[in-house]
Design a protein that fits this description.
The protein has 457 residues and is α/β, with parallel strands linked by helices. The protein has eleven helices and 15 strands. The chain has two domains: 98 residues, Alpha-Beta Plaits (2-Layer Sandwich); 320 residues, Peptidase S8/S53 domain (Rossmann fold), CATH 3.40.50.200. The strands form four sheets. A seven-stranded parallel β-sheet has the order 6-9-5-10-11-12-13, with helices on both faces. InterPro entries: Pept_S8_subtilisin_bacteroid-2, Peptidase_S8/S53_dom, Peptidase_S8/S53_dom_sf, Peptidase_S8_Ser-AS, Peptidase_S8_subtilisin-like, Peptidase_S8_subtilisin-rel.
């Protein structure tokens, strides 16, 4: 990975393999309205699950026009004009379509219901085959430790998440979505034998095997969901999970933001409570798409806007700050600039900031990252099914995410905004936050006590 830096329409989301020499394009078509929608706000059960509606109701969030799926009649017209429907974002009112030529995009622009058309992907020259013998890599061999948490003890105790676990809050009843690049061999590992998996979905290539893709998501998932006592236990071992793929590791193009938007909207529709995403983008294969510092304003990147919308729908989004601290960019990467998300940077076991951890603040002066967690020599599950170590804010994020999910289990009356607030206030630099540590390293037991003070009488 270069920079780890749904509408149920009449059309199937099928993405064919692109062969060398066959040029193909993907376009983000921004629609003007939802005037021809066949759905109604007074019948939200037709496009949102009962769990999604329950989450909104619990936090006093009304269903509004942004929840309505994009107009099927508009999509049908784009298909008639030569586009192949791939996905849609109802929050952004956009449609992702694929074409075999660029002239088709010009036809799209002439439609009265189209506001803009942006090319977000050009087919690469090569196709990378999957590893058919991948499961043979899994040995499921490990050594037991004296500590109950095994190799994950240090990163859990740093946040005092073990205190939440001891009080009975281990994530049960919470639904977490992991949006990532693939979950290599998760289906063959004993480390995840107890995993409460609700399902998988691939928004890059619906026909692919999500367990044959990149290993990044495997390592991220393990920080939360591993559940083998005395070997490795994650921060939310009893939560339920959706595994979603939005990152295409073969190229770095803006379409991955569209994939991510479709992923998080799917997560919302099935009632997910918490989302972890250890993905972020500021630089692309085509430099003309690169973001600038001024774009870290919480409202420019499609991914950032979607993350902000997710928060408005009552989901907690936890994201990695990025690993650009030693690069020329240095700054956080979208969607880490979103105001309503919990952005996590990395520290080592001595609580010193990792030099690679991206820094803030946002372009409009907000404190980012929000908090810090272990991201240097973090314990993860390796591709052989045993324990391993990895560096990156990619792992600090899920370590923190699982802990906050347990906190929310303990204090279900908190809204997303209140949840983030208590985590910030419970962090060790809350009185003097800065652009490197944010509010510091959170103490989840302190956050729990603050949350209990807010319990309705």
């Amino acid at each position: 990975m270069k920079r780890i830096t749904l509408i149920g329409l009449l059309l199937a989301c099928v993405l064919s393999n692109v062969h060398a020499g066959e040029k193909s394009y993907k376009y983000r078509v921004k629609l003007t309205d939802k005037a021809e929608t066949v759905y109604a706000l007074d019948k939200p059960e037709e496009f949102l699950s009962a769990r999604a509606l329950e989450r909104r109701a619990k936090q006093g969030i009304a269903v509004d026009s942004t929840d309505l799926p994009v107009c099927e009649s508009y999509v049908r017209k784009l298909v008639e004009q030569g586009g192949k429907y791939l996905s849609a974002s109802k929050w952004n009112n956009t449609v992702l379509v694929q074409t075999s030529d660029e002239l088709t995009a010009e036809a799209f622009k002439k439609n009265p219901f189209v506001e803009s058309v942006k090319r977000v992907w050009v087919s690469p020259d090569t196709v990378y085959p999957s590893n058919a013998d991948r499961k043979k890599e899994v040995k499921n061999v490990w050594k037991k430790q004296k500590d109950y948490y095994g190799m994950g003890a240090g990163q859990i105790r740093m946040l005092h998440a073990d205190s939440l676990h001891a009080a009975g809050f281990r994530g049960e009843g919470m639904l977490i979505a992991v949006i990532d690049a693939g979950f290599y061999n998760v289906d063959a590992m004993k480390m995840f034998k107890k995993l409460d998996l609700k399902g998988t979905r691939d928004f890059v290539n619906p026909q692919s095997d999500i367990y044959a893709e990149h290993s990044h998501g495997l390592k991220v998932l393990s920080c939360m969901a591993a559940n083998v006592p005395h070997v490795m236990v994650g921060t939310a071992p009893e939560a339920a999970y959706w595994l979603l793929r939005s990152e295409d590791n073969d190229t770095e193009q803006p379409v991955e933001e569209d994939n991510w938007a479709a992923s998080i909207e799917f997560a919302d529709s099935v009632g997910v409570d918490v989302v972890n995403t250890s993905l972020g983008y500021y630089s692309f294969d085509d430099p003309s798409y690169d973001y600038r510092y001024r774009d870290l304003d919480g409202k420019t990147s499609l991914m950032t806007v979607s993350a902000e919308m997710a928060a408005a729908k009552g989901m907690l989004v936890v994201c990695s700050a990025g690993n650009s601290g030693m690069d020329t960019w240095k700054k956080i990467t979208p969607p880490a600039d979103a105001e309503g998300v919990l952005t996590v940077g990395a520290v080592d076991s001595m609580r010193v900031n990792a030099t690679f951890s991206s820094i803030g603040n946002t372009a409009d002066g907000r404190i980012k990252p929000d908090v810090m967690a272990m991201g240097v020599h973090a314990s993860v599950t390796g591709t052989d099914g045993g324990t391993s170590f990895a560096n990156g804010t990619s792992f600090a994020s899920p370590i923190c995410c699982g802990a906050v999910a347990c906190l929310w289990q303990a204090c279900p009356w908190l809204t997303v905004k209140e949840l983030i607030d208590v985590v910030r206030r419970a962090s060790d630099r809350a009185d003097y936050p800065d652009n490197i540590f944010g509010y510091g390293i959170p103490d989840m037991w302190k956050a729990y006590r603050l949350g209990m003070e807010m319990k309705p009488r």
